[in-house]
Structures are given as structure tokens and as C-alpha cells.
Design goal:
mainly beta, seven-stranded mixed beta sheet, four-stranded antiparallel beta sheet
């Protein structure tokens, strides 16, 4: 059973920062690509960033230079450091693991006020 538990969401003013964390069960974390997606109201779920087990990263253009994804393989945890937040970053953020398909956690709300 996939277990992904996100934390760290909340309300922040534009220009502020938040760090999201995702604790994963060891059996799904090890060796797999981890990622963060987000879904704003009325929109589809979009990929934000990914990180391989070796630490190679990908970012969607809208967050490049502002967000940083990282992982601690010893703690089975993946992080998303978000800085210079904008109102358009407001969404539910989902941690995910890729094993032929993406599987998501329950999500954590991030709200950026203007």
C-alpha cells in the first residue's frame, strides 16, 4: 500500500516562503522518482517538480528559480522549498511517486494572499 503523507502547507503572503514535506513508506521511496504536483480550483493537476533517486531534478517553467525539490533518502522524505510565492501558486500540493504511473498523497493546501 502506498503511503505518502504531506505536511507544511498553509497561508502565506505573496513573496513569502513555505517548505512542504512528504514522508513516504520505505518500500515506495527507495529508487523511485518522487515529485510534487498541484491543482488549483477548476484546473487540472499539474506537475511542478520531480527528483530521481540520484538527485536529478526537473521543474516546470513557472517555478524555476523559486522552488527547490530535494530528498533525504535516509528519512524517506521529499521536500519542496517554495520561495517568492505568488497568488497563482495557490493550490493543493500533492506529493507523488512514479512507478509506471503517478500515485499521489492526500495533498496539502497552499494559499498565497496578495
Amino acid at each position: 500500500q502506498v503511503q505518502l503523507v504531506e505536511s507544511g502547507g498553509g497561508l502565506v503572503q505573496a513573496g513569502g516562503s513555505l517548505r512542504l514535506s512528504c514522508a513516504a513508506s520505505g518500500s515506495i521511496f527507495s529508487g523511485n522518482v518522487m515529485g510534487w504536483h498541484r491543482q488549483a480550483p477548476g484546473s487540472k493537476r499539474d506537475l511542478v517538480a520531480t527528483i530521481t533517486s540520484r538527485g536529478n531534478t526537473y521543474y516546470t517553467d513557472s517555478v524555476k528559480g523559486r522552488f527547490t525539490i530535494s530528498r533525504d533518502n535516509a528519512k524517506n522524505t521529499v521536500y519542496l522549498q517554495m520561495s517568492s510565492l505568488k497568488p497563482e501558486d495557490t493550490a493543493v500540493y500533492y506529493c507523488a511517486v512514479f512507478r509506471m504511473i503517478w500515485t499521489w498523497g492526500q495533498g496539502t493546501q497552499v494559499t498565497v494572499s496578495s
